[in-house]
Amino acid sequence: MVASVAARIRKVPGFPTLDVERGFLAPGVRLLAGVDEVGRGALAGPVSVGIVVVDLQDHGLLADVRDSKLLKPDDRERLEPLVREWALASAVGHASSAEIDTLGIIGALRLAGTRAWFEILAGGVRPDVVLLDGSHNWLSVPSQGSLFDAEPAVPACEAPVHTRVKADMSCLSVAAASVLAKVARDRIMVELHSEYPGFAWNENKGYATASHRDALRLAGPTPYHRTSWNLI
Q1: In angstroms, what CA-CA distances link 144 with 139, 148, 183?
Q2: Residues near 27 by Cβ (< 8 Å), separated by ≥ 6?
Q3: Could you list the mean pLDDT of each consecutive 10-residue stretch along the chain, which spans 232 residues?
Q4: Neighbours of 171 (CB within 10 A)
Q5: How many CB atoms lie within 10 A of CB 161?
């Protein structure tokens, strides 16, 4: 971790900080996990969930990191190893297109997040609290009476989960998690492109571009497409 170096970096307007995260610091709450997902709206490929753990008492800022959607691909690739070095712990979990079709997107997000969560735990780090991008807590098991009770059971993290809309814009831990998830998923889609080059996944990363939909009309879906979705 490069907290000693990062601590000397000043806040830059328009870039996320750890101000929100430090608001969770309390007795018994020191390690925070920032969580974000990528690939939720794609037609093909996995959904991926990144987790970055920070020490609320001993973590400085990391320059240039922001929501992955605002970064150029080369910048994301450059920042990915820096994020991993800066984080106390980090992981990315994936759920396949077949798992999305079986579990639904919320259940698949939870599965991907759970895989990343258990990787964090396996490394000997146990976060005290979770900060999740968005308005819906898809990471925890639904409570009784939830609209999502019909989902197949998927394990989930046991730490308290707090949601925040656009956390990837204001919270450095979440923005960092988005970078890791985006880089990991993009690499998967580039690899899958070699199997099905006609869909240009090396460029569209499985999202619903016009050319991607045209290829679907011509060739039909691949095993990596989410066949439960309206693909065309």
Answers
A1: 15, 9, 36
A2: none
A3: 45 81 96 98 98 94 88 94 97 98 95 95 96 94 52 66 96 97 98 97 97 95 93 76
A4: 25
A5: 18
209 inside domain: no
36 is in an annotated binding site: yes
- Predicted local distance difference test score (pLDDT) of residue 8: 41
Please give the tally of structural domains in the chain.
1
Using DSSP's 3-state secondary structure scheme, residue 142 falls into coil
- Give the residue numbers spanning the domain of 51: 3-187
Instruction: Tell me the sheet residues that pair with 225.
Output: 44
Pairing of strands 129-133, 89-95: unpaired
What CATH number is attached to the domain comprising 43? Answer: 3.30.420.10
Instruction: Give the ranges where 43-171 is alpha helix by DSSP (H).
Output: 73-86, 97-122, 167-170
CA dihedral (116, 117, 120, 124) in degrees, to 10, reads -150
Instruction: Give long-range contacts, CB 8 A cutoff, 24+ apart: 194-202.
Output: 195/222, 196/222, 196/224, 199/44, 201/44, 201/45
User: 129-133 and 161-164 as β-strands: parallel, antiparallel, unpaired?
Assistant: parallel
